[in-house]
Amino acid sequence: MLKLKRVDNMDILTHNVQRLVDFYHGTLGLGFFLPYVAEERWAAIDTGNLTLYLFHTESTLKVERRTAINLEDAPGFDSFAFEVENLDEAIAYLEGKVQWVTDQPIEWQHPSGTHYRYRPMFDPDGNMLYVTEPHKV
């Protein structure tokens, strides 16, 4: 039987690796998993529990931006989220540094009592990610 352990890495293809390095490393403050050499046109960003690889692509195809409403989006990869201890503090820190998808944080509650407060944003390439404050029961 196959036993998967955890998500090890995730890849983002981009026309401009440096722009995404500036966002994930510079704006969000994430470190490098492997040494970054700009001329190699890829980066490995350490997110704490997985490695986010940024790879250069020559493709000219555009990806349609996601929305905060899943029912409106096309099938496919939607987003990823970073857990924070205090959502309001994270939003205050990021204000003016990121493009928010929604004007206000969103709240979602499962009948079990577990609930989340979160706010989606776009990276410079239009990939959607969240800062989220989970409250697990």
Q: Which segments are poorly predicted (pLDDT under 50) over 5 or more consecutive residues?
A: none
Distance between the termini: 31 Å
Multimer state? single chain
Strand content: 25-35%
Give the H and E element order: EHEEEEHEEEE
Q: What count of helical segments does DSSP give?
A: 2
Structural class by sheet pairing and helices? alpha+beta
**How can the largest sheet be summarized?**
5 strands, mixed
Average per-residue pLDDT, rounded, comes to 94
CATH architecture annotation of the largest domain: Roll
**Name of the level-1 CATH class of the largest domain:** Alpha Beta
Helical fraction: 10-25%
Indicate the radius of gyration in whole angstroms. 16 Å
Total DSSP E strands: 9
> How many domain regions?
2
Could you name the CATH homologous superfamily of the largest domain?
2,3-Dihydroxybiphenyl 1,2-Dioxygenase, domain 1
Which fold does the CATH topology of the largest domain refer to?
Answer: 2,3-Dihydroxybiphenyl 1,2-Dioxygenase, domain 1
Coarse shape? globular
Key terms for this structure?
137 residues, alpha+beta, 2,3-Dihydroxybiphenyl 1,2-Dioxygenase, domain 1, 2 domains, five-stranded mixed beta sheet, four-stranded mixed beta sheet, 14% helix, globular
Indicate the topology.
Elements: E1 9-14, H1 17-27, E2 31-32, E3 42-46, E4 51-56, E5 79-83, H2 87-94, E6 99-100, E7 106-109, E8 115-122, E9 128-135
Parallel strand pairs: 1-4, 5-9
Antiparallel strand pairs: 2-3, 3-4, 6-8, 7-8, 8-9
Structural notes for this entry:
With 137 residues, the chain is of the alpha+beta class. It has two domains: 50 residues, 2,3-Dihydroxybiphenyl 1,2-Dioxygenase, domain 1 (Roll), CATH 3.10.180; 59 residues, 2,3-Dihydroxybiphenyl 1,2-Dioxygenase, domain 1, CATH 3.10.180. 14% of the residues lie in helices and 34% in strands. It has two helices and nine strands. Strands 5, 6, 7, 8 and 9 form a five-stranded mixed sheet that branches. A four-stranded mixed sheet has the order 1-4-3-2, with helices on one face. The longest helix is centred in the N-terminal third of the chain and has 11 residues. The chain is globular. The two termini are 31 Å apart. The mean pLDDT is 94.
